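Model: Ready when you are.
Researcher: Fold this.
Model:
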Amino acid sequence: MKVVILAGGKGQRLNPYTLIIPKPLMPIGDMPILEIMLRQMKHAGIDDVIITVGYLASLLQAFFNDGSRLGLNISYSFEEEPLGTAGPLSQVEGLDSTFLVTNGDILTTLNFNDLAQYHKDQNAALTIAMHKRTSTIDLGIIKCDGNNRVVRYTEKPTYDFLVSMGTYIFEPRVLSFIPHKKHLDFPDLIHLLLASDEKVVGYPFDGYWQDLGRPDDYLKATEDFDKMRAEFLPEV
């Protein structure tokens, strides 16, 4: 199975760190987050990786080169201009069988082989790895009728919801829904698939998952990696 890693974004929520290095090169412990992901992929039996690059692409290329240091075959797909979170896939060649797509800034214990097997068993066009999150609103929530009469008051409610982990399994036919070199984000791609009655499923994962979207997320990921290193890098 080939893997496409989306690494072309500017990571603006992590400024000022990402003004000088791309987010996939942000260090977690003694290595960049993307190297942790690549080592996990190698451990899962994955050899072929395509990294989509744009912002500060030369730094990613200089660090990972052809992937031989990690026992991988790494190639690069370049975005001349930002194409969103799904658009870069339109430029990647050779995706003619089931493939994995993931953001390049995720710390997780997700088993890629289990995800791929679930996708196959579900006979889906696209499978989204998903994680349960809980959010508490630290305010009193008021619900009114059409005349502003209060009908419900809830103090600091808690909501459970499922979120995308930024990791997906694709069937090649999904690529036909992505216009070549046009901007397209994943939510829009999902809507196109659903409108065409393609089967999109979610893979529930209750293990560890943390993206590096914000500074506090990054700090938590760094702390957790130090505590759980053997779980993230089982070959060590």
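Researcher: Now this one.
Model:
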Amino acid sequence: MTKISKLLLVVVTFLLSCTTYAQQTELLFEAGNEHYAQGRFQEAVDAYKRILDQKVESAALYFNLANAHYKLNNVAPTVYYYEKALQLAPSDPDIRNNAAFAENMKIDAIEPLPKNTLQEWINSVVRLFTIDGWAKIAIVCMILFVLSFLIYYFSYNTTKKRLFFISSIAVLILGIISVSFAYTAFAKAGKDNPAIVFTPEVEVKSEPNLSSTLAFTLHEGTKVFVLEEVNEWNRIKLIDGKTGWIPKNDIKLLNNF
């Protein structure tokens, strides 16, 4: 067998394995949907989690998994998987609507600190797309800018030159804004480090040890932000500004696959 034949055999084998892998994932997803439709919610959860075990993720998968946990009244997993779905599809109305319903499952009612109106508006715009989404918009804008500028440069018609010059400037500005929003979303994701409390009830301590004084108590489903890690403890912050130390095994990070 020649080297080219061996290479072709490897390529064909790889493509077939990828196709089979994709088909298996699709079958598991359909099986989960069928279990859910028939009211077998735990079986649906098991099917969806088998897909996650294969290191495959999507907004639809997380959304359906959250829905199944919601039917089982599993508070923490419900909140967690809706949050995961929103990370991949932040502007999806169905996910946002169901995530709002899941908020009613939580015991802790934490009021956020007052926010700057302009900063909150910018954050709401940034949340319209994922980091990759803003990056793709920026790339498309740069391509349109180059095309518009070339048409402007080589055109002899005054009206057309004016039109494409304005268009090139407009898409360039939009591209720059998209890059800044992508960077803002990336920086925010790295800084926030969000997590969900998975223990039914946990005591948050003032120091990273069990003998320290009680700072406050949290319940499952509450969203926290991890500030630092010391041994088996994480220092967390709530949206109302409170901070404390919690055992790391009592929370599940959202930025971990």
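Researcher: Key takeaway?
Model: Helices lie at 3-37, 41-53, 59-71, 75-88, 93-103, 117-126, 131-154, 158-192.
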